[in-house]
Amino acid sequence: MNHLSLDLSPLVAADLPAIDKLDDRAFGPGRFALSAYRLREGVVPDFNLSCAARVGTLLVAACRMTPVRCGETPAILLGPLTVDPPFRSRGIAKAMIERSLETARAAGHALVILVGDEPYYKRHGFKRAPGGRLVMPGPVDPSRVLYCELTAGAFEGVRGAVARAR
Q1: Residue 1 lies in a domain
Q2: CATH number of the domain residue 121 falls in
Q3: Residue 78: inside a domain, yes or no?
Q4: Is 106 a domain residue?
Q5: Where in the sequence is the domain holding 91, given as residue range(s)?
Q6: Beta-strand relationship, 160-164 and 58-70
Q7: What is the pLDDT of residues 137-161, one digit of tens each?
Q8: 98-117: pLDDT as tens digits
Q9: Is 146 exposed, middle or buried (0-12, 13-18, 19+ CB in 10 A)?
Q10: pLDDT of 46-100, one tens digit each?
Q11: I need a labelling partner for 79 at 20 to 30 A (CA). Which of 101, 140, 144, 157 fits?
């Protein structure tokens, strides 16, 4: 991590305002139109699965995990995964993804989905969802809808609209 003293810790509610500012710097206001944001809007992330990264007391990155449903199947939506631009390319995102997936697996979750770049996320076990199997709210490039099985066979038979958990 390029000599950074990085502290990964579970996300807490008090982190959310700082993370909103971080998301604004990293992604801008256009992020609110994205499908994944529609799923998270007004929903509190699972604090036990989500994490924040700090260098000293400075929050430099966050990875939120939010419960969703894929048709009738419970899943976790990973994202946004946000790293403050000056701290990118230092392994912070990789560390947060690994921690969040390990924590979700240990908590008994079987399936994680996200909207992102397959070449980047495949190193973490994500695969492209077969066309038409998962329907995101709003427009989304289907090639960017990815899933990761935390339990072998967890994506078998999964299909339908992705929606907020009930």
Answers
A1: no
A2: 3.40.630.30
A3: yes
A4: yes
A5: 6-164
A6: antiparallel
A7: 878 888 999 999 999 999 999 999 9
A8: 999 999 999 999 999 999 99
A9: buried
A10: 999 999 999 888 899 999 999 999 999 999 999 889 898 889 888 999 999 999 9
A11: 157
The verdict on residue 39 lying in a domain is yes
Q: What is the total count of domains within the chain?
A: 1
Residue-wise pLDDT tens digits, 3-61: 568 899 999 999 988 888 887 776 766 665 566 667 777 788 999 999 999 988 889 99
CA distance 57 to 37: 27
